[in-house]
Structures are given as C-alpha cells and as structure tokens.
Amino acid sequence: MTFCNLNPLNYLKYGYVVDLLKEKLMIYLTESERNSSSATHLICDKTMNMFVKTSLIYIDGLAGLSLRPYMFNLDDLLLTCNFNGRKCAAIDFKLTFSGIYGNCYTFNAGHLDNETITPVKYSVRPGESNGLQLELFIGSSEHLPCWANTNGAFVAIHNKSSYPLFFEEGLKLQTGKESNLVVERSFINKMSLPYGNCVQDTMSNSSFDSVFYKLMIAEFGIYMQKYCIIFCANEMLFQKNVSVCLQVNNMTADELKSCLEVMTNYEPFYSSCLDYCPLECSMVRLQVAPNFADYPSQAYAEAMKKNLKNFTRRFFNDSFTSETSVNLSYAKIKDSVLSLNVYYDSLVYTQIDEVPSTTMGEVLSQIGGQWGLFLGISILSFLETFEMIYELIYIYVDNNKQSRVRFSESLTEKVTRV
After folding, report:
1. Is there a contact between 44 and 255 (Cβ–Cβ < 8 Å)?
2. Using an 8 Å Cβ cutoff, are 166 and 266 in contact?
3. Dihedral sign from CA coordinates of 244, 248, 250, 255
4. Which of 49, 58, 276 is nearest to 144 (CA)?
5. Cβ of 126: how many Cβ atoms within 10 Å?
6. Per DSSP, what are the bridge partners of residue 289?
7. C-alpha count within 13 angstroms, C-beta hemisphere, residue 334
8. Do residues 233 and 270 touch, judged by C-beta distance below 8 A?
C-alpha cells in the first residue's frame, strides 16, 4: 500500500514557496501580460498546476527552481500507525517518488530506500483490527494556493513487488473521514501459446523480444504489462515532443502551456505500445471496496491535541505558542486529518484458471459424431472402407500375378513346340 498527499508541496510548512512559484511562472509571461489581469488568471488556472507537477519530474525543476526540498516527509504526514494490532514505525515505510504527488510512502515494501532488505509483514486474520490502520495529517485547505484545487490523500493498494501507477489506479480520500478499504484477491492464470499470446515466465529476459519488456525485467526483476505500457508511452511521448519542449526555460506562457499539455498526454501512444508489451499469463487482481465514516469526533479531536506528540505544532509551525494551541478549532482539525484502514474482509481468495475449451480427443470425437449423424458413418464402417481398399489392391495385385504366370506358361509351350 502506498499513500501520498494530493498536494505534493507542504504549503503550510513552507508558505514562502507560493511566492517562489509565482515569481518563476512570471518569467514565462510577456511584460504586458505581467501587468494585466491575465497574469493572475494564468497563475491560478491549470497552467500553474501542470508547471508544479512537471517541475517535480526534474531534479533541478523548471526555471532553476527545484521543488524537492518543499515536499512532504513521512514525519509531516504520519500521526499513528498500527498493523495486526501492533504499532508500526517509520522503518516500515519506503520513500516512493511520484511525478504527480511528489514524496509518497509505501508500507511493507520488503526493503528500505537504501535497498536494505526488511522482514515482510503478513496479515494472518481478516478484520479491521488485523489490517493496516493509519491516521494522517494532510493539512488544512486554508493554506493552499489558488491552483491547488483538491485536498486529501492518494492511496494505491498493490503487491509489494509492484510499483503503483499514480495516474491510472488508486483512490483519492478526503479529510474529515475514516476510509475503510476492504480488499479481496483474485489470482488469474491464462494459457500461453498456442492458445494465447501471453508471457508465461515473467522473470525471464528471453520470454519476449522487446526493448521495453527487457527494461521492465532489468528495472523490477519481474514483468508486468501495465508498467511496460506506461514506460513505452512515456518514451514515445518524449521522443516525439522533445523538440517542442527543448527550450523550456525560454518560452512564453502560451508555449509553456502547450508544452505541458502535450507532455502529459500519454493516451495516444497506449495502443502502439501493446505490440511491445504483451499480457502476462499469471496475475493478481486486488479489488477494493471502500466505505466511509465521519472522523474525528469532537472528543477524539481534543484527545489528539493532548496525546499526539507535536500534533498542535503541525498547524502553526514557527508561530506555535501555548496561546495559539488553545485556538485550534475542531473544524480546522477535521479539515486537516483523515483515518485509513486497509484490511481483508476474508482470507478466502478467487482463482481463475484458463483451460482449453476443447481437447484434441474431443475434436476427433465430435468429427466422428458429425459423420455418423449426417453421413451414417461409424468407426466400423470407416474401417471397412480401408478393408475394401485393401481387398481391391490385393485382387489387383493377385490378378496381375496370375496373368504373368499364364503368359510365362504360354511362352514355354511355344518354345517346346519349336
């Protein structure tokens, strides 16, 4: 399971980054645009949102502004964590970077950021108390700039061996709610050649001849079609449009907007990538059924202020004092936190196996049945045909043999007379 803040930058903790972003986006405006009302419009529309998300991809950012230092760290987000009824800690989470949401955190990945192997935790019983329980601090929406149009968390449920697809799967959860994600598993086994075109051994580099297939094996150690398609589409998109966005720091606002729109549109390349990214024969599907409840209650919000370490300080940062903590309202707490429970409703799973609809023996049986029905032919009559052919050949050969014997006798008789 991986979670992120829907807003990649911690505007509450680093409020001055808003002014930095506005200043950098102004570089792309002409002098007349900077002095007109259109400047505010361009800053607050989706151009700035795309500008922020595109800047996340580049370590140095756009226009020389790197956004990595202003992203959420785990301590900013995580309030409490329990798994299987026991407390979990920061060591159970691995940093997973997203080009959309910035710093995300994966629970139970089996290794840390430095690739150190860690023990994998297993859920041995169904039920909410035996799953993963998180309380997250997202931050109040009152601190968000005009281009940040959502507030909440992104959550993707996936196997520890896979990487979440941030813009194609997952759920968006709102603050002020307890979200219960009930998970069910399905194991699907499809048939390879000659019945289908899927890849049987997804860990072998030689199972399919494609540069993107081999790159997936090298990157993850196992092949999955959905990741291959995304990687392929991203590569095709970059190759086709690299010239459009080559001088990204020397563009006008309209050129930047056009560039950002083009560089985030992957869909036209998906169908082309199917030739390079075959379907795998064995896969696991996780079905998630969400349900929600109001969170937190007023009494619990007061308990959070008293019992959770540095909880109140998160809302004020440098302006925190004992007086400001008293003024922290229930509404502001509710707008800033959410609860998340991920668990199995049952340990029973569904297995779907693909089998041949008709075997070779059944094909021959059906052919014989059709002949018997429409032509009156049975197996015995079919064999009698070969018997008749054999007898005709035998009679023909025997007649030829007798003719040669009579001819030889006639020739002998003539010679004797002479």
Report:
1. no
2. no
3. positive
4. 49
5. 16
6. 182
7. 13
8. yes
Residue 328's SS3 state is coil
Distance CA(56)–CA(66), nearest Å, equals: 8
Instruction: Look at residues 174, 118, 149, 224 and name the one whose alpha carbon lies nearest to residue 340.
Output: 174
Instruction: Give the pTM.
Output: 0.77
- Condensed to tens digits (0 to 9), the pLDDT of residues 178-200 reads 999 999 999 999 998 888 889 98
Could you report the per-residue pLDDT of 378-407, keeping only the tens digit for each? 666 667 777 788 888 878 777 776 666 555
Counting Cβ atoms within 10 Å, is residue 133 exposed (0-12), middle (13-18) or buried (19+)? Answer: buried
The verdict on whether omega for the bond into residue 164 sits within 30 degrees of 0, i.e. cis, is no
CA distances from 245 to 167, 238, 268 (A): 22, 9, 18
**In which residue are the tokens 């919000």 written?**
301
CB 304 within 8 A of CB 333: yes
Distances in Å between the Cα of 61 and the Cα atoms of 23, 83, 118, 173 are 14, 37, 33, 28
Q: How far apart (Å, rounded) are the C-alpha atoms in residues 206 and 216?
A: 12
Angle between helical axes of 211-220 and 225-241 (0-180°, round to 10): 120
Peptide bond into 126 cis (omega under 30): no
Q: Note every long-range contact of 368-375, with CB atoms under 8 Å and residues 24 or more positions apart, other chains counting.
A: none
How far is the C-alpha of 2 from the C-alpha of 368, rounded, in Å?
Answer: 58
Q: In a 3-state reduction of DSSP, which class is residue 193?
A: coil
Task: For residue 155, give the DSSP letter.
Answer: E
pLDDT per position as a tens digit, 204-218: 888 898 999 998 888
φ/ψ of residue 197, rounded to 5: -110, 20
- From residue 134, alpha-carbon distances to 1, 102, 169, 309 in Å are 11, 20, 20, 15
Positive or negative torsion for Cα 198, 201, 202, 204: negative
CA separation for the pair 193, 199 (Å, rounded): 9
Amino acid letter, residue 141: S
Question: CA 298 to CA 334: how far, in whole Å?
Answer: 9
